[in-house]
Design goal:
Growth Hormone, Chain: A, single chain, coiled coil, Major facilitator superfamily (MFS) profile domain-containing protein, mainly alpha, transmembrane helix
C-alpha cells in the first residue's frame, strides 16, 4: 500500500524532466541565452518572446542591451552590496526560523504528543491527527485571502506571536499531564487546543509568507 504513493511521484518526476525552466528564474541567474531560448519555445512569435524577455530583464534590473550571461552569484555571494547582503540575510533567516520553530517535530510526532497527553485509543489518535491536517489546510486557504489585504509583515508577526503562546501552553499541558498520577481532562484539552492553534498560526503566517517573501525580495 505504501509503495502505491510512489507512482504519482514517478509520473511527476518524468513530467518535470520535460518542463522548461522559468525564464524569470533564468534571468535572475544571469542565464540570458537560456531564458531567450525558453521564451522562444513558449511564445507565439519571436517578437512576443523578445518583448517578454525585455520586461523580465527590466524587472530583474538587467541592462536591456545585455545579451550575454551575467554573473549573478558573484553579485549575491562574493561581492554583495550592503542592500543585497541584507536581502540575503533576511531571506535565509526567515527560512531558517520557519523550520526552527519546530513545525516538523509537531506534525511528525503528533500521535506521540497526544499519547503523552493521555490519549491511548488508536481511533482517537487518528481522529485528532486528521484534525491537525484539516486545520493546516483550512488556514493556508485563509492566508491566501489575507496576504495581499493584511500584508506580509502583520501576518508574520501575528503568526510568530501565536506560535509562541501555543507552544508555551502545550509545554505546560504536557508537563502537568506527565507529572500527574491520574488523567487530567483539562490538560488533555489544553494540549489538543494548543497543537491545533500552533498549526493554525503557522499556516496563516510563517508557512506562506516565507515563500512569498523570498520570491519578492530578490527582484
Amino acid at each position: 500500500m505504501l509503495g502505491i504513493a510512489a507512482v504519482p511521484s514517478v509520473m511527476l518526476a518524468v513530467g518535470i524532466l520535460a518542463m522548461p525552466e522559468s525564464p524569470r528564474w533564468l534571468v535572475m541567474q544571469g542565464r540570458l541565452r537560456d531564458a531567450r531560448e525558453v521564451l522562444l519555445r513558449v511564445s507565439n512569435t519571436k517578437e512576443e518572446a523578445e518583448l517578454r524577455l525585455r520586461e523580465i530583464k527590466a524587472a530583474a534590473g538587467v541592462d536591456e542591451s545585455c545579451t550575454d550571461d551575467v554573473g549573478v552569484w558573484k553579485e549575491l555571494l562574493l561581492r554583495p552590496t550592503p542592500a543585497v547582503r541584507r536581502i540575503l540575510i533576511a531571506s535565509l533567516g526567515i527560512h531558517f526560523f520557519e523550520h526552527a520553530t519546530g513545525i516538523e517535530a509537531v506534525v511528525l510526532y503528533t500521535p506521540r504528543i497526544f499519547k503523552k497527553a493521555g490519549i491511548s485509543s488508536r481511533s482517537k489518535l487518528l481522529f485528532v491527527t486528521m484534525g491537525m491536517g484539516v486545520t493546516k489546510t483550512a488556514f493556508i486557504l485563509v492566508a491566501t485571502l489575507l496576504l495581499d489585504k493584511v500584508g506580509r509583515r502583520p501576518l508574520l508577526l501575528t503568526s510568530v506571536a501565536g506560535m509562541i503562546l501555543s507552544l508555551s501552553s502545550l509545554g505546560f499541558g504536557l508537563t502537568m499531564a506527565d507529572h500527574s498520577q491520574q488523567k487530567l481532562p483539562w490538560a488533555l484539552g489544553l494540549c489538543i487546543v494548543s497543537l491545533l492553534l500552533f498549526v493554525a498560526f503557522f499556516s496563516i503566517g510563517l508557512a506562506p509568507v516565507t515563500w512569498v517573501y523570498s520570491s519578492e525580495i530578490f527582484p
